[in-house]
């Protein structure tokens, strides 16, 4: 690796998550230094962190803000977002005490004990979706499995009635549009507005008739003035965004990676005890967050030998850090039996570490483990096909056609 080179501005296209292999781009950027200036669009240049150690440091440093308010060149856009985007009231962009308060309201739903209690429901949903395709001997593992499974689990957790789940799933998809065109901005705004309207009668009902679900718990907190109306709406939308697409992408990306590496598929199929570690390796190798997560400087900030001025955006490249050769041996090799490696960063790190990580891990472990057990000869329907990625800010498969020996 060469020293820091700040004379180059690297282009990181908005559709990097849809590229067949974005990792050589991240490696080329890292060759000039672990903190580099990058161009996200013709009018927006930011800083990108591609080193593992530097990413961990940035994710745990309280001097970096999660809120974009006050960033140079984004004042007008941020004022608009504050008025129109309810997610600006979520813990995603909250700092300090507000972040702690909001996170504590939902943390009990994702404890190890609660996830263990949910595991039988995850298994039941998994079996039901696979039962529906088992006799056919073929399936699209995205539309028929990876997408509906986390939606069913999320519906159980939040408390979405069965009759409302199709609309819930449809609206959730619109939340992941990259905000790079007026049309996509409008689509994302419509999805948030429609999802708000979707939750309004459910919230009203739970306030009158509480149940044993997360939405009822949030309504109780709102009644005690521990969360505002806007924050309650933001929380429901954030849970939808974080609990559906990310897990769906984890499952689909993981299965696709295994099918592209038959020896790894066979190793995991023949030794299910490797599953917990294999899920971590799949997250490292092909996680749902490709470009990274944003943090913002309120004062000059030194990282990786570079001083970033105040009022700047820093993209912490989770996917890039997960393939940093300074931290991982043969980082571009998928190895489901890796041992004693640094924790992968697909779920982030520090106080903003993904709250739903235990549930996502459990869903992926159950989903992929059941697939391997029931369909031991699972294979790509067309090994030579160039499968497309889902449109959006996350890295996920648009389709994953597979075949297998039908169950009698």
UniProtKB/TrEMBL annotation:
The UniProt GO MF terms for this protein read: heme binding; iron ion binding; monooxygenase activity; oxidoreductase activity, acting on paired donors, with incorporation or reduction of molecular oxygen
The entry's keywords: Heme, Iron, Metal-binding, Monooxygenase, Oxidoreductase
Q: Name one Pfam family in it.
A: p450
Q: Which residues form a coiled coil?
A: none
Q: Which SUPFAM superfamilies match?
A: Cytochrome P450
- Statement: the UniProt record of this protein carries the keyword Hydrolase: no
* Listed InterPro entries: Cyt_P450, Cyt_P450_B, Cyt_P450_CS, Cyt_P450_sf
Give the UniProt family note. Belongs to the cytochrome P450 family.
Can you say what this protein is called? Putative cytochrome P450 hydroxylase
């Amino acid at each position: 690796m060469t020293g820091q080179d700040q004379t180059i501005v690297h282009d990181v296209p908005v559709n990097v998550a849809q590229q067949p292999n974005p990792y050589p781009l991240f490696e080329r950027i890292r060759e000039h230094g672990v903190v580099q200036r990058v161009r996200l669009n013709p009018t927006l240049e930011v800083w990108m962190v591609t080193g593992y150690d530097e990413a961990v440091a940035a994710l745990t440093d309280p001097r970096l803000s999660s809120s974009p308010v006050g960033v140079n060149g984004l004042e007008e856009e941020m004022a608009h977002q504050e008025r129109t985007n309810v997610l600006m009231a979520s813990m995603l962009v909250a700092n300090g005490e507000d972040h702690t308060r909001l996170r504590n309201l939902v943390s009990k739903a994702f404890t190890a004990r609660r996830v263990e209690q949910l595991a039988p429901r995850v298994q039941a949903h998994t079996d039901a979706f696979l039962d529906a395709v088992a006799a056919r001997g073929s399936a699209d593992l995205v539309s028929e499995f990876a997408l509906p499974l986390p939606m069913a689990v999320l519906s159980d957790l939040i408390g979405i009635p069965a009759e409302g789940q199709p609309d819930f799933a449809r609206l959730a998809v619109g939340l992941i549009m990259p905000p790079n065109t007026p049309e996509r901005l409008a689509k994302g705004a419509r999805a948030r507005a429609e999802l708000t309207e979707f939750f309004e009668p459910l919230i009203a009902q739970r306030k009158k008739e509480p149940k044993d679900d997360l939405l009822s718990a949030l309504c109780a907190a709102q009644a005690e003035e521990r969360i505002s109306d806007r924050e309650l709406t933001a929380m429901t939308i954030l849970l939808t965004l974080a609990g559906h697409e990310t897990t769906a992408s984890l499952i689909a990306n993981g299965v696709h990676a295994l099918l592209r590496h038959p020896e790894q598929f066979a190793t995991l199929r023949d030794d299910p005890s490797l599953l917990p570690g294999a899920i971590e390796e799949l997250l490292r190798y092909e996680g749902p967050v490709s470009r990274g997560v944003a943090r913002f400087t309120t004062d000059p900030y030194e990282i990786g030998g570079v001083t970033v001025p105040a009022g700047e955006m820093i993209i912490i490249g989770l996917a890039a850090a997960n393939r940093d050769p300074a931290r991982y041996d043969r980082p571009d090799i998928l190895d489901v039996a890796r041992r004693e490696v640094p924790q992968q960063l697909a779920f982030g790190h520090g106080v903003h570490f993904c709250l739903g990580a235990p549930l996502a891990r459990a869903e992926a472990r159950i989903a992929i483990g059941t697939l391997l057990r029931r369909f031991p000869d699972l294979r790509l329907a067309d090994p030579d096909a160039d499968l497309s990625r889902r449109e959006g800010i996350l890295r996920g498969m648009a389709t994953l056609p597979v075949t297998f020996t039908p169950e009698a």
